[in-house]
Amino acid sequence: MFSVLYSKIMGFKRNMGWVILMTIFPIVLTLIFGGINSGGGKQTLPIVNEDNSVYSRRLIDEIKKSNSYRIKEVDSEEAERLVREQDVFFALVVPQGFKEAIEEGKEGSLIIARSVETLDIYGLQGVLNSAVQKIAIQSNIVNKGVEILNKYNKEENAAERFYQLVESKWEEQRPITVRAKVLGEDNNKKINSTTSISAGFLLFFSMYPILFLVGDILEDKKLLIWDRLMISPVSKIEIYAANLIFAFIIGMAQMLVLVLLNKIIFKITWTENVIGFVLLLGVFAFTVIGLGLFLTSFLKTSQQLSSVAPIVLTSTSMLGGLMWPVEIITNKLLLLLARFTPQFWAMDAMKKLITYNAPTQDILFPMMVLFLMGIIFMGVGLQVTEGK
């Protein structure tokens, strides 16, 4: 076995180029997409204030206080131009009737015009929901207070002065304050878009070298190297083991290099649970090796593998949450299918590690699912290959 493994290592130079390429690609793409999402700072948010009331002004002030956006008040034509030319991801329109909806306690409407599908829109919706709720609660408090005050003594500008009092006391004594803590969570740590993108690309691009290195078995059979090995003193199990161990070593090396590069370039703090993180990467590599053996068992040449692999890996990665958060998928059938992909379980465990610094026992279940998938893939692949 060691002689076959040694020959694989010596012949690695012919594959080194595209392995390096698969290591550079995720860094470049993270730089591009991470830069787009972060925008080098705050995103510009054009706002069209059609209502032009005291409540719409307070809404804009609340958005500014969130410290998430650079506010740019524009007219509807300018907002449409910015969105259409994709100078911004989205624009906010405060339509007429917003003031009446707040005062009458009705459900108001805000319009978000968007140019592209982006996860950042969910962040904007969260900011708007929080701001509108605060404005509605304060408006109700002020109106009730002024109504009671006017029964005893009518004063000019009572509503404005009452509002200023409510606003000054809001941070000190909020009507409701909810504090939530997840066990094991680092309160100072939040997963940002760059970290999420890096994690997805780390898993996605590491699958290609592993799968194609396992696929070298097809090339060996085509060049009759496999036949020569069959008549050598080395057993078939040792030949398979050497190929799979070699793919595992290269795959793990690539993933660890990517982890270090992302940490150095993008200042990503992956997790404090280093052992759990490395174990997860190892189990994921094992599963991809099994997947590679499964695919090669149904194919005859490495060219066929080159055609099939990108389709399988890309589609399952999209379904499994490497390209975007699986939480945005609402179709129940797709969510069910996602659970049959290795990427879903790997990303699920990685999110727990990155976001919550989860202990190893908290990611045992996804790792066990990955390991079981690897065993099934490998078992079926060997059975089909030997049955030919």
UniProtKB/TrEMBL annotation:
<dbReference type="InterPro" id="IPR013525">
    <property type="entry name" value="ABC2_TM"/>
</dbReference>
<dbReference type="InterPro" id="IPR051449">
    <property type="entry name" value="ABC-2_transporter_component"/>
</dbReference>
<keyword id="KW-1133">Transmembrane helix</keyword>
<keyword id="KW-0813">Transport</keyword>
<comment type="similarity">
    <text>Belongs to the ABC-2 integral membrane protein family.</text>
</comment>
<protein>
    <submittedName>
        <fullName>ABC transporter permease</fullName>
    </submittedName>
</protein>
<keyword id="KW-1003">Cell membrane</keyword>
<keyword id="KW-0812">Transmembrane</keyword>
<feature type="transmembrane region" description="Helical">
    <location>
        <begin position="274"/>
        <end position="295"/>
    </location>
</feature>
<feature type="domain" description="ABC transmembrane type-2">
    <location>
        <begin position="163"/>
        <end position="388"/>
    </location>
</feature>
<dbReference type="InterPro" id="IPR047817">
    <property type="entry name" value="ABC2_TM_bact-type"/>
</dbReference>
<keyword id="KW-0472">Membrane</keyword>
<feature type="transmembrane region" description="Helical">
    <location>
        <begin position="363"/>
        <end position="382"/>
    </location>
</feature>
<feature type="transmembrane region" description="Helical">
    <location>
        <begin position="239"/>
        <end position="262"/>
    </location>
</feature>
<dbReference type="Pfam" id="PF12698">
    <property type="entry name" value="ABC2_membrane_3"/>
</dbReference>
<feature type="transmembrane region" description="Helical">
    <location>
        <begin position="16"/>
        <end position="36"/>
    </location>
</feature>
<feature type="transmembrane region" description="Helical">
    <location>
        <begin position="197"/>
        <end position="218"/>
    </location>
</feature>
